[in-house]
Amino acid sequence: MNTTFKRHVGIVAIALVVLGTSAVTSTAFAQDSSNVASAKVERKANRMLARDVRKALERAKFDVDDVRILAKHGMVSLDGTVPDGDQLSRVPDVAGRVHGVTSVASNLTVREEGR
């Protein structure tokens, strides 16, 4: 009887270890899946914010064909060239008024004549 009892305890212990390991694995997998999903949502939100900034600048009649707009967590970066100094100073202001923008980093320069 003592041997049978030890065998049953051993089987139960092994079963608990196996079940515990699979539960940890499935929890880790679920966390990885949610991280991937949240990263996709974040990238989409960043792209949409950059698109909204571009639309706002185009509605304000700015020439932003040579401007690259990147957004990340509400921070917008403007890189490229604009036709004149007036746009150089006003483009970041308009971009900063777009809903969702928390800050604007402007690396814009005035386009050289003939380009």
From TrEMBL:
Keyword annotations from UniProtKB, A to Z: Signal
Extent of the signal sequence: 1-30
Pfam families the record matches: BON
The protein's name: BON domain-containing protein
The species this protein was found in: Paraburkholderia pallida
Residue span(s) of domain BON: 45-112
Residue ranges of the TM segments: none
